[in-house]
Amino acid sequence: MQNHNLKSTLLRLDGASYKAYKDIKGSYQFPDFTLIIDHVQGDPFASPSKLRVKIPQSIAGFPKQLYKSKSREVALRDYLTRQFDRAANNLSSHRGTGKSGLIAITRYGQEVLERTAVFIDDNFLEVRFVVGLPARGRRILGRQAAEMLCGDIPDIVTEALLYQSLNARSIQQQVEIIEDADWLRQQLPAKGLVAFVANGAILPRRSGVDFRPLTEEAIPFKSPPSLEVQFNCPNRGSIKGMGIPAGITLIVGGGYHGKSTLLKAIELGVYNHIPGDGREFVVTNPTAVKIRAEDGRSIAGVDISPFINQLPQGRSTTNFSTTNASGSTSQAANIIEAIEAGTELLLIDEDTAATNFMIRDRRMQALISKDKEPITPFIDKVRQLYTDYGVSTILVMGGSGDYFDVADTVIAMENFIPQDVTERAKAIALANITNRNSEGGTNFGQIKPRIPVAYSINPSRGKRDVKLKVRDVDEIAFGTEDINLAAVEQIVDAGQLRAIALAIVYAKENYMSKKQTIAEILDRVMKDIDREKLDVITGFPQGDLALFRRFELAAALNRLRSLQIQ
Fold first, then answer.
1. pTM > 0.85
2. Both 218 and 90 in a single domain?
3. Residues facing 124 on adjacent strands
């Protein structure tokens, strides 16, 4: 249909019952684009209507070099998402009851993620967004709706989605930065590194709820000479910074000197960041997983015996299940599950770890004999993790010098500037021998594969076969269960949670009846998404999803309280 048909229909519907908006579902041809109305909301207070625009590349005009690689394509799609949002915010206005007048695209943060809001290829630019169709009470405001769909949306297309209307230099900067960051991340193994922090990076954030870079009094990062490495990036050329070697690394220092800030930047270095974030060139092994204690979480059939060898009442630790884990059992399970999912790097901050899980010093060993203590502390397993499984660890440690004995690298933070104090720490360890007994045995222990029981994963609720809902960025309502992911710190976007919930359903429907292990299921789901993008897990065009890692998918599945293991 032509756009004038849409306008005349909306004017005709003015004053009608809200449900009459269903008549406008369909496709409409505008001079420069096609408007597709996929879903019309049932009332003004319901989730807003889902729309798309498709613009031929002959009109959009984006040069192929801006999306010729996967890195550049994701960067350009992210850039256009943000441009649409800015233009929509300028035009969006309240026009009646409920969500009336809303024009919005998916939310985003400092990270550049692959999202389903924007797609681009040689033929078309497609953008998915939502509109709150206007009403007063439950009566259609047809004239206002016509202004939105036939006036505001063409204005947004012209302002935000045509190459000639945008800042070409700004676009080029974003695609080049993202391409360089991806390239850097790929180079880490060749240099024997698990992370890289560029000189000049700004690591502190404005606050715990404002993740933009601190602008006042922020101290630029500067590598100690002994850890400085250099790369020659495809776009920006030479870049220097601190390389963190594979193995066991301690980050030490006094309180408030930047230990946790550095670890947080490394933790989020699995993602790329927008220009101006300050952490554009902080890159981390893409399999890195942040580990913490998580009292109260559910655990299903995990072999935590490498860390805990006995429990009261003779409960099994080789097939451990609970609906209310302690700090130590939860941290043990978190580590085992991360290794099961394929991590090569663990990140641990003592502030969020269980003390009795991390260390048992010589005096406590003398008071409480090993046969009375079921926990094998992490200090006695961290080396075996590296030698047996190739899993490195970066630890923030301010309270226990016993870890000097097992560390390969020790970095001291002083007023947010790192110092390589490895030799000094080793000398102190030699001069102050603790005589604590290692309790870890000769090897780490087995990582036993687990096979989930398909029927234990039930997304239905009431009459609905699939009922999913995301609450902020830390909880999924999955059928009748709530999956609490507040402690899974590397989830940074609500769109990731929505996609994870859908991916669990997709995994159940496609792979869990075949008695495959969790690792095999993760392999297949992520391979499908890589090949067919996130649309493979949805039944219709959905613009509010963001790509997740296999580790966060595993974390959500493992925290589903109904999960059973064969």
1. yes
2. no
3. 56
